[in-house]
Design brief:
Length: about 100
């Protein structure tokens, strides 16, 4: 699974369709969802999939949580060419993630 951080965030989300999973290693729903993210990524090789550890990169996370009024994780954002096209909070299955993608 690819990692994304404050330093390379903007450049990695600017092209194509990108899913970013905001997570923390101490978050049990986040840990449980990791396999779902991997399954989604395998089924969608044309989608860039990244994980953003909120404990290691606060700049982007602070902006995102304020913009979307987020109070818990996991949190998913799907971008198309740098623009937000979908978002979801809480545990999601690979099927849930696929539905998000299919509806953009």
């Amino acid at each position: 699974m690819n990692k994304i951080a404050d330093g390379n965030y903007r450049e990695l989300i600017d092209k194509g369709i990108t899913l970013v999973d905001f997570y923390a290693p101490w978050c049990m729903p986040c840990v449980r969802m990791e396999k779902q993210i991997e399954d989604f990524a395998s089924a969608n090789p044309n989608v860039n999939v990244y994980k953003y550890n909120i404990d290691n990169g606060l700049t982007v996370w602070n902006k995102v949580k304020n913009e979307f009024r987020i109070r818990s994780i996991p949190f998913i954002i799907i971008y198309r060419d740098g623009e937000v096209v979908a978002s979801a909070i809480g545990y999601k299955t690979a099927e849930d993630l696929q539905n998000l993608l299919d509806n953009i």
